[in-house]
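Q: My labmate handed me this sequence with no annotations at all. I'd like to see what the chain might look like in three dimensions before we decide whether it's worth expressing. Could you predict it?
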Amino acid sequence: MTFTKEDGLVQRLALLNQEITVYLNHMLASPHINATNYFYLLKLLDYPEITQSKFSTLVKLNQSTITRAINALVKNGYIEKLNSEDKRSALLRLTPLGKKTALSVKEKVGELNRFLLPNQEDSQMIQLLEKIETQLNQLEKNK
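A: Here is what I predict for the chain of 143 residues:
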């Protein structure tokens, strides 16, 4: 990938995202786990037994996109849906296969993060990404 002077921030981020997506798809060796859905497993590893509605708020994606991804992960044995106190929203939990896969994915993604930013704690990149996130959140509020 080569950037030109004419490429702006958004174009560069899109190109980097594309390259990372290709790499992740190659790196993630588990069946039915790819750059599109791996982070669902990681989020459920961090938030075990979360309701689907709270999970949707957490990942900030379109509800139908989340439902399709969750249903596919349920079908493939990575996640199970349980009854919750709120009858309108199922409780999501990793299965043993899901937990094993999530731990493997977490390690692989961690390796990639450490390779891309070896000194994350001191990184100006992290500060810039946080600033971009803040700006995007502000755009969202102004809609």
